[in-house]
Specification:
Length: 372
């Protein structure tokens, strides 16, 4: 990878790729393989977008939140494995409600921890849950929806506070369709994901992006939108992975997101919470999760690094993490999309430009669609 900081490119490129996240990097890697010349612009001071990891005290820190690779798509799994060796990490988060610990996802371990002997078999656990379910025709809000799916105890202990923090609103004011279904497993099985493949790249994610962008021109700390016409003149086509409202100078208004503030801390102990991901489900604790990064990869470092995740309202100066795909925002997005479709040389891709939450495997698959 040739990295320039605010350099001036004189060459003509086939593709100008805005954003060095997973989408932009997979696209650039595949384009280069086919003989196309690419320039990647990145407004941050590093490549990798939100999967960027940084090594501190020999621990790979997931700077933009815990990233666990999981997929049932064998092609995507094989694809990502050419760039790193993955370990056999299985995501088994723990929920903490007022100091009491519960296994996630909701499974027989969780039910036994909540109800003890009354839920010691799958049949007993089902009976407890069924006896608590709210019978209602059309749930009006998230609270009624959750109560109709899982009943009161699990909702109050493990869903209500966490969801309210996540969205910054009371569960009674949130739409029911945020929770379409609640995965419940009547097995003693704490594996969070149902996918066939799962793991963490040993050595972190940044190496993957470095390999993808090897021998491709990359310009860091460069916001494409600040000098759009100049950068467009450098290439035949633009692949844009930033927010769509900013591409059109917010001419119809701003798309809304939920943001997160990450607060990292080094602790001089070797093991803080004994698990990579702990969810804090009570409303009064302002953060939703603590991530202890060393547990993603086997690590004997005498110190440890943790990150607190505080959900926050999105402002134009904060990072857009989770799109709010409600009616108002989708209507706004679709208006921007019509403008984008009128531009001949523009390709939109990735979680920001498409205004949807994409896991890493889906991001890779959508970038590969252009080439395979
Ligand atoms: C908190 C969090 C946790 C997640 N955890 C998981 C997980 O455990 N497992 C999983 O599979 N997926 C996870 N994801 C999803 C994963 O992060 C995405 O699938 C992936 O990062 C999307 O890549 P992208 O290239 O579309 O976007 P990004 O990674 O956001 O990359 C876009 C890049 O474009 C740059 N950019 C934007 N605008 C401009 C501009 N105008 N000029 C120049 N550069 C610009 C940005 O700086 C950024 O680097 C998580 C996402 C979040 C937010």
């Amino acid at each position: 990878m040739k990295v320039y900081i605010k350099g001036v490119r004189m060459n003509k490129y086939d593709y100008l790729i805005v954003g060095s996240g997973l989408f932009g990097s997979v696209f650039a890697y595949e384009a280069k393989k086919k003989g196309y010349k690419c320039l990647v612009l990145e407004k941050r001071a590093h490549i990798g977008g939100n999967i960027y990891t940084e090594k501190r005290d020999n621990i790979n820190i997931h700077i933009y939140g815990a990233h666990i690779f999981h997929t049932s798509d064998k092609n995507v799994w094989n694809y990502i494995n050419q760039f790193a060796d993955f370990n056999n990490y299985i995501n088994s988060p723990v929920a903490n409600f007022k100091g009491k610990l519960f296994n996630l996802p909701f499974n027989m371990n969780t039910f036994y921890q909540i109800w003890g002997e009354k839920a010691s078999t799958p049949e007993k656990a089902k009976n407890v849950i069924n006896s608590q379910k709210l019978i209602i025709d059309k749930p009006k809000n998230l609270e009624e929806q959750a109560l109709s799916l899982i009943g009161n105890d699990v909702y109050e202990l493990l869903i209500k506070g966490y969801t309210e923090k996540q969205w910054g609103r009371s569960a009674e004011d949130l739409p029911p369709d945020i929770i379409k279904r609640i995965p419940v497993r009547y097995k003693f099985d704490n594996n969070y994901f149902n996918d066939s493949y799962q793991g963490i790249p040993m050595g972190g994610y940044t190496q993957i992006i470095e390999k993808m962008l090897n021998n491709i021109d990359v310009e860091l700390e460069t916001d494409f939108n600040k000098n759009r016409s100049y950068y467009c003149s450098l290439a035949e086509k633009v692949v844009y992975t930033g927010t769509l409202d900013s591409y059109f100078d917010f001419c119809y208004g701003n798309l809304d997101y939920r943001s997160v503030r990450f607060e990292e801390k080094k602790l001089d102990i070797s093991n803080f919470q004994g698990v990579a991901v702990m969810n804090f489900t009570e409303r009064e604790i302002p953060y939703t999760r603590i991530i202890e990064h060393k547990h993603f990869e086997y690590n004997e470092c005498p110190a440890t690094w943790i990150s607190y995740e505080y959900p926050v309202d999105y402002k134009i100066t904060s990072e857009p993490y989770y799109p709010i795909n409600d009616r108002t925002n989708m209507e706004l997005y679709n208006r921007y999309l019509l403008l984008a479709k009128a531009e001949n040389n523009l390709i939109l891709g990735g979680r920001l430009a498409e205004y949807r939450y994409y896991d890493m495997d889906k991001t890779i698959a959508s970038a590969l669609k252009f080439w395979l």
